[in-house]
Amino acid sequence: MIHTAHAILTGQGGRRINEDWAGVTELPGGGLTAVVADGLGGHEGGQIASETAGKEFLRFLSSAALCPDAALLEKAAFRANEAVLDLQTQEYRMMSTLAGFMLTDRQARWVHVGDSRIYHFHNGILSGRTLDHSVSQMAVAMGMIDESQIRFHEDRSRLLRALGSDTFEPEVSGPVPLDRGYHSFLLCSDGFWEYVMEEEMEAALASCGTPGEWLSRMEKLLRERASANSDNYTAAAIFALDRP
Description:
By secondary structure, the protein is α+β, with helices and mostly antiparallel strands. It has helices at 45-63, 70-87, 135-141, 190-193, 198-206, 211-225, and strands spanning 2-11, 20-26, 32-40, 95-96, 98-104, 107-113, 117-122, 125-129, 171-177, 182-188, 233-242. This is Serine/threonine-protein phosphatase.
């Protein structure tokens, strides 16, 4: 049987409002869905876009017939995109990133659009992460910069895909079987991963027993480094352990 635990962290950073949104919904019969969204658009439109996208993503998966396949997650992302498009006007063309996650039936899958990331750790070791839909990530793919330079690249915030844009194209990952050891998942906006290195995520995970402790340890690093006008930051942590 898969046992889960989760926690959410969000902070305003140095901005006037928090345009990030995160949520976790436990599913009947076990399992859960989670989402982190980072709104874009200014004039508080980003705040509306991220909350709308996140809530619609969770609502759809919570009400759907639960079979965590790629088509279901992709459809949930499209529903979130439609919800954001319905709110747009000529004056406010708000958009949002999306990092969505689903755990059920002894496996996990996830979907993302933009540069909000999902990290997967297996037995405490980083197993992989989503690749940003951004100009800087493309520069890595083209060999122009290496992975370590993304955080400081001049075009890091230029997105190639987003909800509410003409370039909406969700990317689905998985499935990851959960029947071997323990798994940890981190969903986070760019305002979070910008200041916390992957090796520090691993080190914090090794010294923490709960998702909340893990997030708090990483937030301490973030707050020590963030500038006065730093971005909003948001993260959701999920632990999954296979027990008899």
